[in-house]
Predict the 3D structure of the following.
Amino acid sequence: MMNEKVLLMLNEQMNREFYSWYLYLSVASYFSGLDLEGFEQWTRRQAEEETVHAMKIYNYILERNGDVVLSKIPAPTQKWNSPLEAVEAVYSHECELTGRINNIVRLTREVDDYTTEVFLHWFVTEQREEEAMANRVLQKLKMIGSDMSGLLMLDAQVATVGQAQEPAP
Ligand code: FEO
């Protein structure tokens, strides 16, 4: 039987991953409205990945005979003032997720739950990659500034960002 606090934090993380799905969907629709199809494809793909993350935790909780507790998903921000602002929101959100995962890993060590700690290693690696990916796009947007042709070139590049980068489960 899983430690109660570990179970609580895993449920919180699962719900936060579902919120991540919402956030990426919202950012994708913002980019669609700007006709930035590459950015839209990238963030749509990220949205799909977030459901995979949430379901990994969902399945793990059930496998350990825990209760899955699905909570209300808050509405994400719908509009940003610029692509830079939208990607900043994504990057900041990924950093927040990393902090949450680290907190759960810390707890599993405190309560000697090595099984959950090992399960979470996948997420530690995934967060490193997700942060790096969002930060790469963010830094390029900062370099581009208000140069529209640079933005269109980056739009073509980000269409494939993150493809086949999921670490093995
Ligand atoms: Fe589920 Fe983007 O981390």
User: Anything to note?
Assistant: The domain at 4-158 is CATH 1.20.1260.10 (Ferritin).
